[in-house]
Specification:
2 domains; 4-stranded antiparallel beta sheet; globular; C8orf32 fold; hydrolase; 5-stranded antiparallel beta sheet; Cysteine protease; Transglutaminase-like; alpha+beta; 15 strands
Length: 341
Amino acid sequence: MSENAHETRSGQDGATPHGARPLIPLRQEDAPALDPVHYRVHHLTSYRYAKPVTRNYGRAHVEPRATPHQRVLSHEVVVDPAPARLTAHTDFYGNSSTYLLVDAPHEQLDVHSHARVSVAERRYGLEPMSRPWEQCTPEHWGAPMPGASLDFVHPSPRVPGGTAAREISAEVFRPGRAVGECLAELTALIHTEFTYDSAATTVTSTLEEVLGARHGVCQDFSHVGVAAVREAGLAARYVSGYLRTAPSAGGALGTEPAGEMIGSAASHAWLSVLVPGTGWVDIDPTNRTFVDQRFVTTAWGRDYADVPPLKGIVVGPPGASSTLRVAVGVVPETAGTESAD
């Protein structure tokens, strides 16, 4: 594998390229590390109700989490109208969530998440990424590794086994192939063969529906990737978070995309695969890239159902409808706005 040029399938692989595969970020001992990037993150979820509702219960996974590549410098959740209860909870996988209760009549609900984070560069070892993928199954894990769990190997509610994803898995995870090449190929294959279409699916769409239509959004593509990896017997987890955004001239939240990155105006999703010797390796099929300093991680689980950005129950009059608006801003801090850590 080369870290100085994009990989392409050669005659040795005996297959047709799925477009340019993403560059694998390998560690070079003599290469200086990039400086961490500091971001201010603002996530707004806003509901407007056609008729007043009397009670709102909700749980939000919007707090960035500490990882080997990310430090959380500050975080605050603000709810309007003022909640009767606002408490934090840490789940089995170490994700922090916020429980909220609004216990009075209201016609709107705004949930703001404000955070400051520092995101470091990700680099992976050449030797672990060059191993045959068969050496990344649980029997090869060896000493306990952070986050290693058979939960991420077995099927889950939104990622059942025995789907058409096994065909993708068989195409990518060919015998003896280096795991790094497999992950680069999986990223390119999903990006090339699936079409990003925000109108094609909903949060309730099944994996089989996505595999059949070959249309969807980042949540769907992440589920496809997770399913393909698990079909090979490796551990894969669903990751939620944000992409770096660019502020508009007027400073409006989430109004200007960040270059070619898809999904920067709302919550984003990708997947992470466990590679013994170098840890969890994150890939984003939606944008055909290995995850880097443009990404902010909030939570991970077996699939979307474990870590939705906001879910809850609303009590109100029968037939009451609502409209939803979501906006995200992930803006690098300038030298003049950074504060001491």
